[in-house]
Amino acid sequence: MSDVDAPTSLFFDRYCEGRVDEDAISDGIETWHDSGDEEQRDLPEFLGMTDDEYVIWAMDGRSLPMLAEARRTGRNLRDAVAEHLAAMQANPTREDGTAIYALTHWVARNPPP
After folding, report:
1. Residue 8 binned pLDDT confidence (cut-offs 50, 70, 90)
2. For the whole prediction, is pTM greater than 0.70?
Protein backbone atom coordinates (compact mmCIF):
# COMPACT_ATOMS: atom_id res chain seq x y z
CA MET A 1 0.00 0.00 0.00
CA SER A 2 1.14 3.53 -0.66
CA ASP A 3 2.16 5.86 2.12
CA VAL A 4 1.87 9.04 0.03
CA ASP A 5 -0.03 11.26 2.42
CA ALA A 6 0.30 14.66 4.02
CA PRO A 7 2.86 14.69 6.83
CA THR A 8 0.11 15.52 9.32
CA SER A 9 -1.83 12.37 8.45
CA LEU A 10 -1.61 10.03 11.44
CA PHE A 11 -0.56 6.42 10.99
CA PHE A 12 -3.57 4.86 12.72
CA ASP A 13 -6.04 6.97 10.76
CA ARG A 14 -4.38 5.89 7.50
CA TYR A 15 -4.31 2.26 8.68
CA CYS A 16 -8.01 2.28 9.63
CA GLU A 17 -8.81 3.71 6.18
CA GLY A 18 -6.75 0.97 4.47
CA ARG A 19 -4.19 3.42 3.06
CA VAL A 20 -1.17 1.78 4.76
CA ASP A 21 -0.40 -1.68 6.06
CA GLU A 22 0.69 -2.76 9.54
CA ASP A 23 4.37 -2.39 8.73
CA ALA A 24 3.96 1.38 8.37
CA ILE A 25 3.81 1.70 12.16
CA SER A 26 7.57 1.16 12.23
CA ASP A 27 8.04 4.16 9.96
CA GLY A 28 5.83 6.26 12.22
CA ILE A 29 7.78 5.25 15.31
CA GLU A 30 11.09 5.99 13.56
CA THR A 31 9.82 9.40 12.45
CA TRP A 32 8.77 10.20 16.02
CA HIS A 33 12.18 9.18 17.37
CA ASP A 34 13.95 11.24 14.71
CA SER A 35 11.82 14.34 15.35
CA GLY A 36 13.77 15.39 18.44
CA ASP A 37 12.50 18.25 20.55
CA GLU A 38 10.36 19.59 17.70
CA GLU A 39 7.69 16.94 18.36
CA GLN A 40 5.81 17.61 21.58
CA ARG A 41 3.23 14.81 21.31
CA ASP A 42 3.83 11.49 23.01
CA LEU A 43 4.21 8.45 20.76
CA PRO A 44 0.62 7.15 20.95
CA GLU A 45 -0.76 10.59 20.08
CA PHE A 46 1.77 10.99 17.27
CA LEU A 47 0.63 7.66 15.81
CA GLY A 48 -3.03 8.63 16.20
CA MET A 49 -3.75 6.01 18.84
CA THR A 50 -5.23 6.31 22.29
CA ASP A 51 -2.98 5.30 25.17
CA ASP A 52 -4.97 2.07 25.57
CA GLU A 53 -4.77 1.24 21.86
CA TYR A 54 -1.01 1.76 21.94
CA VAL A 55 -0.55 -0.34 25.10
CA ILE A 56 -2.60 -3.18 23.61
CA TRP A 57 -0.58 -3.05 20.38
CA ALA A 58 2.65 -3.08 22.44
CA MET A 59 1.41 -6.21 24.24
CA ASP A 60 0.32 -7.93 21.04
CA GLY A 61 1.82 -6.60 17.83
CA ARG A 62 -0.78 -8.57 15.85
CA SER A 63 -3.68 -6.65 17.38
CA LEU A 64 -3.84 -3.76 14.87
CA PRO A 65 -6.66 -5.27 12.78
CA MET A 66 -8.75 -5.80 15.93
CA LEU A 67 -8.00 -2.28 17.19
CA ALA A 68 -8.91 -0.76 13.83
CA GLU A 69 -12.16 -2.73 13.64
CA ALA A 70 -13.12 -1.63 17.16
CA ARG A 71 -12.49 1.98 16.25
CA ARG A 72 -14.30 1.78 12.89
CA THR A 73 -17.37 0.20 14.46
CA GLY A 74 -17.34 2.16 17.71
CA ARG A 75 -17.08 -1.07 19.65
CA ASN A 76 -16.03 -0.90 23.29
CA LEU A 77 -12.27 -1.53 23.35
CA ARG A 78 -12.39 -3.72 26.43
CA ASP A 79 -14.95 -6.02 24.82
CA ALA A 80 -12.97 -6.20 21.58
CA VAL A 81 -9.77 -7.06 23.47
CA ALA A 82 -11.57 -9.67 25.60
CA GLU A 83 -12.89 -11.36 22.44
CA HIS A 84 -9.44 -11.20 20.79
CA LEU A 85 -7.91 -12.70 23.93
CA ALA A 86 -10.51 -15.49 24.10
CA ALA A 87 -9.71 -16.44 20.49
CA MET A 88 -6.00 -16.55 21.30
CA GLN A 89 -6.63 -18.66 24.41
CA ALA A 90 -8.84 -21.08 22.49
CA ASN A 91 -6.12 -21.87 19.98
CA PRO A 92 -2.79 -20.63 21.38
CA THR A 93 0.47 -20.78 19.51
CA ARG A 94 3.92 -20.81 21.01
CA GLU A 95 4.28 -17.09 20.24
CA ASP A 96 1.02 -16.17 22.02
CA GLY A 97 2.17 -16.79 25.60
CA THR A 98 3.42 -13.31 26.45
CA ALA A 99 0.52 -11.57 24.70
CA ILE A 100 -2.03 -13.79 26.44
CA TYR A 101 -0.45 -13.07 29.80
CA ALA A 102 -0.31 -9.30 29.24
CA LEU A 103 -3.77 -8.98 27.69
CA THR A 104 -5.31 -11.09 30.47
CA HIS A 105 -4.04 -8.56 32.99
CA TRP A 106 -5.18 -5.59 30.88
CA VAL A 107 -8.70 -7.03 30.60
CA ALA A 108 -8.78 -7.73 34.37
CA ARG A 109 -7.79 -4.10 35.11
CA ASN A 110 -10.49 -2.78 32.76
CA PRO A 111 -13.88 -4.05 33.93
CA PRO A 112 -16.77 -4.18 31.46
CA PRO A 113 -18.67 -0.91 31.03
Report:
1. low
2. yes
